[in-house]
Amino acid sequence: MTTVQMNADVYHSLSIIAEDSDLMKKAMLYLRKLARQKQQEKDDSLMTKEEFFSMIDHRMEDYEKGEYLSFSSPEEKHRYLEAL
After folding, report:
1. DSSP secondary structure string, the chain?
2. Per-residue model confidence as pLDDT tens for the chain (84 residues)
3. N or C: which end of the chain has fewer CB within 10 A?
4. Quick one: CA dihedral 68, 72, 74, 79, positive or negative?
5. Residue 1 CB partners (closer than 8 Å, separation 6+)
């Protein structure tokens, strides 16, 4: 079943129970619960504040030890990045 078909089925089912406020309330609460669960799923590309600040601290230590890249122009930086 495609997303479009599922969407149509959900709306069809809602239209059947639309006049029953108790059933509509149950449906609404359940859909909100599902939406909250979806929003709370962790995105692997995100990091916690602790991870972020730890990364910053680590990079500052590298900088203080002189372990960093320096470019004399934007073009030089661009060439470096293109070579990666």
Report:
1. --HHHHHHHHHHHHHHHTT-HHHHHHHHHHHHHHHHHHHHSPPTT---HHHHHHHHHHHHHHHHTT-----SSHHHHHHHHHH-
2. 899 999 999 999 999 999 999 999 999 999 999 988 888 776 667 788 899 999 999 999 999 999 999 999 999 999 999 999
3. C
4. negative
5. 9
